[in-house]
Amino acid sequence: MGDAVVGIIGMGDMGKMYARRISKAGWRVLACDLPTKTAALEAEFSDNNNVSILKGGYEVSRASDWIMYFVEAKNIHAIVADYGRSTKKNAIVGGQTSTKAPEIAAFERYLPADVDIISCHSLHGPGVDPKGQPLVIINHRVQRRQSADLVKRILSCMESNIVHLSAEEHDRITADTQAVTHAAFLSMGSAWHANKQFPWEIPRYVGGIENVKINLMMRIYSNKWHVYAGLAILNPAAKIQIKQYSDSVTEIFALMLQTKREELTKRIHDARAKVFGQPRDDDEELLLQDDLLDRFSLGKKPAVRHPNNHLSLLAMVDCWSELDINPYEHMICSTPLFRLWLGITEYVFRKPGLLDECIDTAIENVSFRSDDLKFTIAASAWSDVVNSGNMEAYREKFAEVQTYFESSFVEATKVGNEMIKTIEVGLRSRKTT
Ligand SMILES: NC(=O)C1=CN([C@@H]2O[C@H](COP(=O)(O)OP(=O)(O)OC[C@H]3O[C@@H](n4cnc5c(N)ncnc54)[C@H](OP(=O)(O)O)[C@@H]3O)[C@@H](O)[C@H]2O)C=CC1
Ligand SMILES: O=C(O)C(=O)Cc1ccc(O)cc1
């Protein structure tokens, strides 16, 4: 490969994944984490001749041509303040944090003027094969054309689909796709925890769409809190989306409680028309199909399917409709989790007869009322935490639910990975046709 040296500051899950792939493609990589982890990293990468573990961010910054920060978004300011001024002359700097506003602000403030700023964001977790997944590149401050060419050449080893965006476009889209999606799953987990339920043990939560909800909820809570906190709290656009989602949940639940069938039906049908267009009487075009959804269960499937009102999904479409968001426009820049979320949402709204069944259940069946009440409270509480900007409150809230579900993470991750792999093949082929 070329002579350029790639620097990686922060060797957590994403930093390691990049170090492995980029070094495998033949590039020389200089990497570091906090000093307490240097010895363990040296041992872990001892058989990789292309990766050298250095003492810290100063050393990496001084000797690399493209330096990437793979650190917690909440710390990016302080970390760039520390290492930024040691950046090699005429080098390029970027980051992998999930929200670009704070990252770019830190770069603009602390990097020397000769340094180009080119950032990126892989729209998937470290355990997902990057091939074919979206990879955003942000050419923010490019004074030399060869800088953009070099970054493109280095990143080509990911075999991802490159999407060029500005930092603002990136944050607006990820607020729509990631932050609000996570708010829904965080709320489901909080509600099940508040009701002292493990949903896979309850027949009305086993099978089809319920499997997807449970597996994705478990996926989020088995990950690191700082990733989701950073995405929601540090992205200015995310607060509005999450608040609207919480308002949609509350207002729809109120209509259910008051058994206002006509009003509820009109609101849901109007939202459907805006987001999905007119209903069709076939389901050929759906992103997901039933038999696929049934395969990935953590519990035993009951003989008869229990209808659910799917409050979380009704509220999602209401929220998109209220904010004039067309979720399909974001597919080029979406995560696997968002595609699955859109998949089950579309399923409920477009599978013939299913939406009417949800509305009937919402009005007539009170067996979900207690769960729906807890879900409504949870959505509002998550919105309040995000709005407050209090990272510590977010961490505590996340950790409580994480501890509750912890003993099932290994099994859930196995089933969830299998689910994502299988369903993604279908989703991607649909997207390209
Ligand atoms: N996980 C995911 O699914 C994705 C994450 N991202 C983003 O990528 C970034 C990294 O995420 P991820 O790898 O998952 O998180 P990790 O917590 O696994 O990795 C971050 C690493 O940076 C280290 N670190 C903190 N301060 C410094 C410092 N001063 N110098 C060197 N290293 C430091 C951390 O150490 P310590 O833990 O001791 O603080 C940790 O090892 C985040 O901004 C995240 O939002 C992007 C796409 C996907
Ligand atoms: O798919 C999701 O939304 C995830 O939960 C994984 C994830 C987390 C953070 C990112 O910046 C990108 C992907």
Which structural traits does this protein have?
single chain; binds 3-(4-hydroxy-phenyl)pyruvic acid; Rossmann fold; 8-stranded mixed β-sheet; 8 strands; 433 residues; elongated; binds NADPH dihydro-nicotinamide-adenine-dinucleotide phosphate
Account of the 3D structure:
The chain is of the alpha/beta class. The chain has 2 domains: 5-165, 3-Layer(aba) Sandwich (Rossmann fold), CATH 3.40.50.720; 172-426, no CATH class. It is 57% helix and 9% strand. It is built from 18 helices and 8 strands. The protein has helices spanning 13-24, 38-44, 57-63, 76-83, 100-110, 145-155, 167-194, 208-221, 225-233, 236-257, 261-276, 290-294, 311-322, 336-350, 354-364, 369-388, 391-405, 409-432; strands at residues 5-9, 28-32, 51-53, 66-69, 92-95, 116-122, 134-141, 161-164. Strands 3-2-1-4-5-6-7-8 form an 8-stranded mixed β-sheet, sandwiched between helices. Helix 7 crosses helix 8 (208-221). The chain starts with a strand and ends with a helix. The mean pLDDT is 92. Residues 98, 123-125, 178, 220, 227, 335-337 line the site of 3-(4-hydroxy-phenyl)pyruvic acid.
